[in-house]
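Researcher: Structure prediction, please.
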Amino acid sequence: MSSSPLNRLGIVTVIFFVALSGPLTAQTPERFTLRDCLEYGLKNQTQVQNSDLDRNTALAQIGETRADGLPQIDASFEYSNYFSIQQAFLPAIIFDPNAALDQFVAIPFSQKYNGTATISATQMLFDGSYFVGLKAARTVKLLAEKDHIKSQVDASEAITKAYYTVLVNQIALDLTHNNFQRLDTLLNETKAMYTNGFAEKIDVSRIQVQFNNVRTQLTRTQRVLDLSYLLLKYQMGMSLAQPLQLAESIQDIDFEYDNYELRKFDYAQRIEYGQLHTTRELAQLDLKNNQVKYIPKLSAFATVGANVATNDRSEYTNFNDRWLDYGLFGVRLNIPVFDGLRKSFIVQQNRVQLAKIDNQFIQLKNSIDLEVAQARGDFASSLENLEAQQENMKLAEEVYDVTRIKYQEGVGSNLEVVDAESSFKEAQTNYFSALYDALIAKVDVEKALGILFTSDTPEITEE
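Model: Predicted structure follows.
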C-alpha cells in the first residue's frame, strides 16, 4: 500500500500545531485562488522581503561607488596650547656677532598659542578602476535582482505545494465523510436486521469496528486539513490566526501533460542560469579592474588655509593681523612602476576563476537537462498512476455497492461487505497518494522549465 499523503503532511506540519494556542478572532475568511496566494506570499514572505531589501542595498552601493568620482572636500581646525614649548640649541653668534663660536643658546621653536584652519579638495581626473568599479556596482545590483527572483521562485514552489496539499486533504476529508455516512447507514441497517433476526451479533460487531475506525479517521483528517491550512499561511507569510479559504478545487487544475512535454525550453528561463551568467560578468570585471591598475591615475587637489601663532591669548582672535593666509593647487600623477608582479599573479587567478565558471556553465546545463527530463518523466508517470488509481477507486466503490446490495437481499455475507469496505478505503488512500504525487510532480516540472509564478521577469542574455 502506498504511503498516505495525510501521514506525510502530518509529519511536516505538526511543528505548527503550537500556533493554535492563541484564540482565533471571528473574521470572515478570505477566499484565495492559487494566484492570490502566490501574489500575497511574494509580497509578505520574510525571505522575499529580505531579498528585496538586498536590492536596495545594491542601489546604495552604486551610489557609494559613484561618490568616489565626485569632489572630496575636507575642512579642519586645530588649536594648540604649548604649556611647555620645545626648544633647540642654536649658535649664539647668530644673535650676537661677538659670541664665541662654541657658544649656543636655547631658542623656543614655537609660541604658546597656535592655530590652523584649512579647507582641502581633491578631484579624480582619471582612474581606470573607478569606471570598472562603477560598472561592477551596477552588475551587483543586477545579481541582487536575480537573487530576488530566485527567492520568489523558491517561495512560489513552497506556496504551490502547500496549496495543493490543502486541496488533496479537502478531498480526503470529503471522501472520509462520505465513508462515515455510508457506514453509519450500514450500521443502522445491520442493527435493524439483527433486531428482526436477519443478522447475527457478529455482523453488527464487524460493521461497528469499521464505523469506529472511520470516525477516528474523520477526526484525524480534519485536524490534518487544519494543519495544512496553517502550513499554507506560513508559506504565504500570513498570520496563522487569519481565516483563509480556497476558492478553487482539484477540478480547476490543469493536468494536461502536453502543455509541459511540447513546451520549448530555454536555459534563460532558469534563474540559476542567469545568476551564474551575472557571476561571470562580475569575474570579468574583477579581471579588468586588476588589469587597469597598470594605468597611471591622475587627480587634482587644492588647499586654502590660515595659521596663527602668539604668546598672547587675546591676540588669538585677531584675524586681520595675526592670522596668515596661504593656498595652493596642483595635479598629482600616480604611476605604478613595479609591485613585485603582484598584479600579474592576481590577473592569473582571475583568469582561472573565469575558466572555472565556464565549467560551471557546462555542469549547470547538464544538470538542468537532467532535471527537465526527470521532471517530465515523473509527471507523465504520476498522471498514469493517478488515472489508474482513480479507476481502481471507482471499481472498488462499485464492488462495495454490489456487495452491500447482495447482503441486504440476503444473498451475500456480512464479511464480504466488510472486506469490500476495506478495499474501497485502501483504494481511496492510494488515490490520495497518487493525486498528491501528481500535483507535486506538476510543480516540479514547472520549476524545472522555469515557468513558476514570479512577480518579476528576469532578462538574461548570453554572450
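Model: The chain has two domains: 5-68+127-295+337-449, 83-123+297-335.
Researcher: Thanks, that helps.
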